[in-house]
Amino acid sequence: MPWRDTGRPQRGTNRLTGRTRLFVRGAVQGVGFRPFVFRLATELGLAGWVNNSAQGVTIEIEGPADRREAFLLRLERERPPHSLVQSLEAVHLDGVGYAGFTIRASDPGGEVQALVLPDIATCEDCRREVLDPANRRYRYPFTNCTACGPRFSLIESLPYDRARTSMRGFRMCAACQAEYDDPRDRRFHAQPNACPVCGPQLALWDSAGAVLAQGDEALQGAVAALRTGSIVAVKGLGGFHLLVRAADDAAVQRLRTRKHREEKPLALMAPSFAAVAAWCCGCPLRAGAAGAERQSCYCARRARGPTWRRRWRRGIRRWG
Ligand SMILES: [Zn+2]
Ligand SMILES: [Zn+2]
Q1: Which residue among 133, 250, 254, 297 sits deepest, i.e. has the most Cβ atoms within 10 Å of its Cβ?
Q2: pLDDT digits (tens, 9 = 90+) for 238-258
Q3: How far does the centroid of ligand 1 lie from the alpha carbon of residue 171, in Å?
């Protein structure tokens, strides 16, 4: 259901009141663009609506001309950080007397032109929740919000709505739905919104496909398996990651043999930039830091370190 702002004062009799229709093209879906437009329009006392289409985002704002101008200026200045506006077209029209501002159902018609975002690494706010024992998402690995989480990997078609993503099979619980419907919440219209009650769950399988553990126990089980030298296949958003403990020579060798990857470098995973900085010479980190929110892969010259790091891939001078 679209959220309707009923608290807005009645439309005034200002002679300059009119309506502007905007077509925004670019990476404007999956970045919290509609909630942002909703908040901005509501804050400025403008009526109208916003929706996603296969081409981008369409907005109609109705109200005094000065507020519509302020909306346009702030739309460009304050738009969500991951959004990318390729073009913005404005058409001025007569007012029709909208009663409030709504997020309308998406319009799936027409040729697909909107850009799909890549998956975005967990933001600081979500990370804090996952690490907070008092939070309902404590240790829940699929935590996300409008600023972070999967996009490319779960979108099946555009426009971007939960019904067109692989999350459509997970019905939101009352608490998640309340966040999704609340314009003040950072999960307002967050399509992959999920929690331990209603969202996807972890499961640990053995090589025959038998379920060994679920939820947090599955995570602990996977860690224990890595520590004892097993190869763990983690089903991620976009495929499988094959993991072994980098300090375990025998496990690394077994993975190389099985994957026929005798020479090709393997990627190292690190929990933080501080850890990467300790392993590598610092210069390329500056470039890497810019892509931190997408947890990009990048290469850095390796530093001297414990034996396993020197032995791990002889002849390769860079970590990736
Ligand atoms: Zn987040
Ligand atoms: Zn939930």
Answers
A1: 254
A2: 678 899 998 898 999 999 999
A3: 20
